[in-house]
Amino acid sequence: MIPCMTPAGALRPLFRRSVCRILTVSCVLSLAVPGVAVPAGAQTASNLRNASAAALPVPAPAEPGDAGAPSDAALYCQNMGAAASDARLAWQTWNLIALEERLQNRIRELEQKRAEYEEWVQRREKVLGEVEGHVVSIFQRMRPEAAAAQLATLDEDTAVAVLVKLNARAASQILDEMDPARAAQLTHSMAGLSKSEAQGSL
C-alpha cells in the first residue's frame, strides 16, 4: 500500500497530537518571550491560573492601633493572675479569722482558769487564816518548853508565822527554851518580816 493513500481516519490521531504540541510550544514561548501571540486555548489556561491566584485571600494590613494591643493569651494570663491573687488574699483572710477565733477561745479559757485560781486562793487563805488562828491559840496556852519543842519540828516560815502571831511575852519564853542557834535564826527572820511589813505600811 502506498503511504499517500492512507485513509483519512488514520490521520486524526496524528493531527490531534500535532495540535497539542503546537499549543504547548506556544504557551512556553508566550511565557519566555514577551510579545509572542498565544493561542486562544493557551490564553484560557493562563486566565484560569490568574483567576485562581486572584481568588486567594489576601491578608489585611495591620491597623496602627492593633500593634500594642495585648493578645488573647496575655489577657487570659492577666485575668488568671488577678483571680489567683484574689484567691490567695481570701485564703489569708480566712486563716487570720480562724486564728483570731482560736485566740479568743484561748483567752476565754485562761480567764476562766484565772477566776478558778483566784477563788481557790481565797478559799485557801480563809482556811489557813482559821487554822492559823487555831494553832496560835494552842501555842498560846502551851508551856514554853512544850511550845519550843513543837516549833523545832516546823519549817522556818511556819515557825516564824506562829511566833509573830503570839504576844511578845509568850514568844520570848518559847525562844528561851529553844536551841540558841535556832532561836537566833527565827529571831532574825522575824525582824526581817517586821521590817518588810513596816516599810510596806509607809
Jot down its keywords.
single chain, mainly alpha, 7 helices, 0% strand, disordered C terminus, signal, Mg_transptr_MgtE_intracell_dom, MgtE_N_sf, coiled coil
Give a quick rundown of the structure.
By secondary structure, the protein is an all-alpha fold. Among the domains are: 89-141; 143-202, no CATH class. The protein contains seven helices and no strands.
Structural account:
Residues 1-11, 35-42 and 198-202 have low confidence and may be disordered. It is rod-shaped, with a radius of gyration of 62 Å. With 202 residues, it is mainly alpha-helical. The longest helix is centred in the middle third of the chain and has 70 residues, at 72-141. Helix 3 crosses helix 5 (156-165). Among the domains are: 89-141; 143-202, no CATH class. 80% of the residues lie in helices and 0% in strands. The chain has 7 helices and no strands.
